[in-house]
Amino acid sequence: MHWEASATTGYADNPLDRRAELRGDAVAITALRDAAAQVLVFAGDKPVLKPGTPLDALFTLAESAELGSSADIFLGVDGAHACFAGATPVAEHDLKARGLLVIDLRSLAIQGAVPSPIVAMLGQAKSLVTWHATHPHCARCGAPSQITQGGWRRDCPACGAQHFPRTDPVAIMLVHRGDTCLLARKPMFAKGMVSCLAGFIEPGETIEDAVRRETFEEAGIRTGRVTYHASQPWPLPFGQLMIGCFAEALNDDIRLEAEEIEEGRWFTKEECRAMLEGRHPEGYFCPPTVAIANLLLRDWVEA
Amino acid sequence: MHWEASATTGYADNPLDRRAELRGDAVAITALRDAAAQVLVFAGDKPVLKPGTPLDALFTLAESAELGSSADIFLGVDGAHACFAGATPVAEHDLKARGLLVIDLRSLAIQGAVPSPIVAMLGQAKSLVTWHATHPHCARCGAPSQITQGGWRRDCPACGAQHFPRTDPVAIMLVHRGDTCLLARKPMFAKGMVSCLAGFIEPGETIEDAVRRETFEEAGIRTGRVTYHASQPWPLPFGQLMIGCFAEALNDDIRLEAEEIEEGRWFTKEECRAMLEGRHPEGYFCPPTVAIANLLLRDWVEA
Description:
2 copies of one chain form a homodimer. By secondary structure, chain A is of the alpha+beta class. In chain A, about 25% of the residues lie in helices and about 25% in strands. The first copy, chain A, is globular, with a radius of gyration of 21 Å. At the A-B interface, helix 5, helix 6 and strand 12 of A face helix 5, helix 6 and strand 12 of B.
């Protein structure tokens, strides 16, 4: 297999074969619910884990049933194991009293507390579990909708509308000019952290249009050539598709959008190298390797 | 400006500056609602047009008000003209009785009945108009939601949820092997038409993952290297983002997914050239230039 930038992003190395053709086949799905089946259990939007090193995110169907989880989302198959996901109604402190852990996925991914294929499976699961939890009603008529197709659709019994899991495409871009690139910080970032600009791709625009619009809106920089580099599924808050690009800046006078961006400036390649190695003299640092911004920065520095 | 494949796709050459910073500014939006403002009016999901050559999709606010359209979606600004969109409650036959035309956007785009920048603006408008029409309720609690932010958000007065226009990323891929490429027809296609394989990118996968999964699901072909080529906003049924890729096939024994694909086979470059020029000896033809499948095929043949 040749090298592929997207395959190196966080949440990307998902081992599951989704077997989408089985989703509508209740008999086949029931047959897969055997003793070898694995379940990813969520309390709200956080994974539930068994203690150990690494932590264990894989429950049996019996264990998941004990936690009151219906495990009704079919994620796919990994060899002999069918994999399901579901939410537990048991409160976080009761789960902890049973010796289980409840840790948000972002922390798990950054800390490497579970293997990266499990992080990817948890990302897929979180996208679906959170979509169901936040979209229980039909957006067309308001009636409660029902989970169907192994968790990959919600149908409305009142008006017949079908609703599919939502995936929002986001453009994330390393804007560069000569030997420098534009990094910025949002108010929510940890102190010292800077990252690439990013924003939702809107109806009616191409990926490249969105890169140019967002870069101008957020930093007053016009961009010329835009090049796709890699993509990444991003399950926070639930279902984004990060589309990572490089963009050539046409001007260098940054004018920040004050509400969204707290600080932003041009950083040299040498500074970026220092940030990637955790030794920037002013204490700036970049997102962790699980984030596609890190990959964009790393590949630009090394190019 | 350098050449960019995405800029040559249909629905892509949108002249509007979206001025997203104005969406929440009711005073600014009201000030833009002047005599120079232009309105794109929709009957259901079809554009309303004034007769002429080319057909005229641009109404004044006064004309749009006469048709009962509130024109409450702010699309952006084109020079001195602010541009809005809205739906009319007037029935299609009454619009026709007033001398207006009601034509679906796909036909308008294929026939070149309006200039391509207007096609792009109509695409943006259709995505938003149709999203509002099909999502009037809060998916979280079921209550009727309200349009806000110049048409770029719906807020729920009951539970406080905010809902944003939906854009579904779709992978569309020209799968090639040596001097041949895989084209297929869905049952809904016009007789003789073949196109690239395509499918929705799901939660938890990269663009490249989706290309490989869909190609295997639909045609039994495993793919190696996947390369992004261009993207296209696609407003049918309302808000898709087509992400066009080339993919190298690793086997050639096609096994079609019978429910979704009616016919599919390898076509030589010479055959593809003939299809693009409308002279395939067996009468096969490819999608029109407005579709990104045409661009993928053309650029592969010419490469």
